## 1
Amino acid sequence: MKDLGLYIHIPFCVKKCNYCDFYSLGCVADEGIERYIDCLCLHIGMEGKNYSNRRVDSVFFGGGTPSILSVEQIKKILNAIRHSFHLTEDCEITIEANPGTLTEEKAESYKSLGINRVSIGLQSASDSELRMLGRIHTFEDFQESYRLLSLAGIDNISVDIMYALPNQKTDDFIKTVDKVCEFSPEHISAYCLKIEENTYFYKIKDTLSLPDEDEQYKMYISLCDRLEKMGYEQYEISNFAKSGKRSKHNMKYWLSLDYLGFGPASHSCIEGGRYSYSESIEEYEKSLEDGNEPKKIPEADTPLTRDEIIDEFVMLRLRLSDGVNVKEFEERFEISFENRYKKISMYEKSGYICKKNGAYAFTPKGFFVSNYILSDILESI
Ligand code: SF4
């Protein structure tokens, strides 16, 4: 059996960013955070009993802003994990950290607690863009966080950036990319800003001047070119890594491998079955304090059909630059890939998809319109 991943959701932030629709609460009192951590530890203990035969090779503290937690709080959660699960020697332990919440003490403790990967949420190297996004930090804060982590000996750092921001031009975005590359992080994630409901940006969306699709395309293609020249492999639509530095944890999502989520709004996938917990910290805490497991909400009311399983496999694999390996697909599903997805050759001819090493994969320009191409390919079956 393949190793498990654990996702630990820390739903607290200093304040809510203008574009954010993740489940996170701004400005929670210390007692509230302590109570949540006690519940999280109870939950980890309960689930651990069900997986005593499985090893864990990745732990991911996501949020929210996990770096808001004190060293003692992180230690408590990690102790609960180590007590209840068997971590492999080379377990990847990642924490998301936001500039402005990281201190020298925290950086050093991460290292001593066995955290070996830190993902920094920068978003932009421009202070005016950061203010517009409602971020709590400046670029200088990011530089300081990076310095503290490096000094502490954390040698696997990822940086998150965003593009297609209001009023942003390709040149502005590329300045952010270049400034990030000066630090030479092991991994870079670059996401396109989406205006989601229930965000401040959604309320003022009519006043936002967003880059049009052509400008977004220029940003994306420039990003891919730039990072390729800087020695990064694009291994997923939005993710770039130096050799051997792909995110082990995130790969589990795209390969449909097993992972367990802890905390409200977290998701889990076990042997192909997906479920989540409700987006309510109150509900989550109440269940655990009453001695019950939080209610698991299945992602689908009925088990997926064989066709849905096959299409989901293809959709997830095509997010990766490794793509769909035809031999693996045909051995697994005992049908011909090219016969099922007849339109694939049309997109191959027009340069949106390429075939290499026996696998079909999107090219960078194909990644940019992958949602459209995927629905076209799947609808044509
Ligand atoms: S720091 Fe991250 S999780 Fe928190 S509000 Fe901002 S974008 Fe959302």
## 2
Amino acid sequence: MYEDKTLVCKDCGQEFTFTTGEQEFYAEKGFQNEPARCRDCRMSRKAANNGRRERVMYDAVCADCGKETKIPFNPTNDRPVYCRECFEARRGQE
Ligand SMILES: [Zn+2]
Ligand SMILES: [Zn+2]
């Protein structure tokens, strides 16, 4: 009744297999939608969403002092990123 399906991940653009086992699992759970992401991206999203467990941290360079820092969100180019000290210092000024 089920066949392996090849889907394209919404996040990384890689093809991945929606296996018969997974399809059965989805049907059992009553999920209407096929998975939009590959296993890797789903896992990293789960990790990112679960703040209490290990957080995915991204490398960034502070826009103020140039120090390397880690931030809990994916840095985008249109927003400056600050290290903890600069962030605190800037917040203190406002
Ligand atoms: Zn992916
Ligand atoms: Zn800084």
